[in-house]
Design goal:
The chain has 391 residues and is mainly beta. The chain is built from one helix and 21 strands.
């Protein structure tokens, strides 16, 4: 199914590039990106797995017609010390904008598909265990009430399917609305809010010990719904400097009382281990003060309460004397994290003699996470260099 969707889109793209249709099309936008760097904690847990990382990507975009935009992309990522996590991502998508640009009301219909395959660069073997495909579609309406007020509303659908047949697809529906208003003093306020309705596969608290061959058989199905709101206040200081402050709040509105999810150390795939509620704040700044350079910096803090999590616990086997990992809901714990992050990025875009837009960049980030579960106590410093070409 995944490859059928990709093939169909490529055929459509090829058709639009040929024959009499070509004369009516907009230009093809091609962007090639290269990046390389190092991360001090790839898995973001207390294993502190450090590795180098290199990535190459190609993005294609086209305004096929005034009302239709098409895009396709492919990206290959290699990890120096962890070749099993080398992966290939490709995606296709499009946007339909049926109304005139001059209309105060705009309708947007978008859809995307992404496929991620973990493929060892040495053996060229695909790992179905972690591979996944993601589908999303959005229908939204935006209304320009006045020069200073713009409203929006819509619904989006997202589904992620996994290579393991035992892992059920994760599906969510997002009903959202928002506004953007210009305030005196070059201030702008943007607010987005909505509800997310989704499914949940979980281990009931009463389960107790879980045999490795029954890890997915003991799962039960339920609903996981949440409410969110995120206001952002920004301030422009002329054309060369800007600040923004973004707050966020997420709260579960429905979840099974006895839900437990598998954590990282169990080595059992659970798409819901990253689900959380809580509050956050991010401060960011962007500057064009240095001629020809773009400087971006920011800092963020988040309080997050995750679903009750069970981790693997090492115990001595009474019969063999060997250390064995036990997974049991008896050891399930409430998980609360405090995440802090600071980052800095510098970009230097310029146009080559051949007319290509070239942009080298440097990105630095430091993350510190403290948790009520030791597995998720970690820190990470990452550095990456990037280079992009726009043809």
């Amino acid at each position: 199914m995944r490859h059928a969707i990709f093939t169909a889109f490529v055929m459509l793209f090829s058709f639009l590039l040929t024959g009499s249709v070509l004369a009516e099309l907009g230009p093809l936008d091609v962007q090639v990106s290269l990046s390389g760097g190092n991360t001090g904690n790839l898995i973001r847990d207390n294993t502190n797995l450090e590795t180098s990382k290199a990535s190459t990507g190609v993005d294609l975009g086209m305004n096929a017609f005034s009302w239709l935009k098409l895009q396709a992309n492919v990206q290959r990522t290699l990890y120096g010390q962890v070749p099993a996590l080398d992966n290939l991502v490709y995606g296709v998508g499009g946007a339909l904008i049926p109304l005139s640009e001059q209309s105060p009301i705009q309708v947007y219909l978008t859809g995307h598909y992404r496929d991620r395959e973990y493929r060892d660069q040495l053996s060229d073997v695909t790992s179905a265990e972690f591979s996944s495909g993601e589908y999303d579609a959005t229908a939204s309406v935006a209304w320009t009430v006045s020069q200073s007020l713009r409203l929006r509303s819509g619904v989006s659908y997202n589904a992620t399917s996994y290579g393991l047949d035992d892992v059920r697809d994760r599906k969510t529906y997002d009903l959202f609305g928002g506004l953007n208003v210009s305030l005196p003093g070059r201030l702008a306020l943007d607010i987005e809010s909505g509800v997310v309705l989704g499914n949940l596969d979980y281990v009931p608290q009463r389960t107790g010990g879980i045999r490795p061959d029954r890890s997915y058989e003991v799962l039960e199905q339920g609903d996981l719904n949440l409410f969110y709101i995120s206001p952002r206040l920004s301030r422009q200081f002329g054309r060369l400097f800007g600040l923004s402050l973004t707050a966020s709040h997420r709260a579960f509105t429905e979840k099974p009382d006895s839900a437990v999810v598998y954590g990282h150390s169990t080595n059992i795939l659970s798409p819901w281990v990253s689900s959380y509620e809580g509050d956050g704040m991010v401060f960011s700044a962007k500057s064009y003060i240095l001629p020809s350079f773009i400087l971006t910096a920011g800092a963020g803090y988040w309080d997050r309460d995750y679903l009750t999590t069970v981790e693997g616990v090492w115990r001595v086997d009474l019969f063999t004397g060997d250390l064995v990992k036990i997974v049991s809901t008896v050891f399930a714990q409430e998980r609360s994290d405090q995440l802090r992050r600071v980052y800095f990025k510098i970009q230097r875009p310029f146009t080559s003699h051949a007319g290509y837009m070239i942009e080298p960049s440097l990105h630095l980030a430091y993350t510190y996470n403290s948790s009520t579960i030791d597995v998720y106590d970690y820190h990470d410093f990452s550095i990456s260099l990037g280079l992009s070409f726009r043809i």
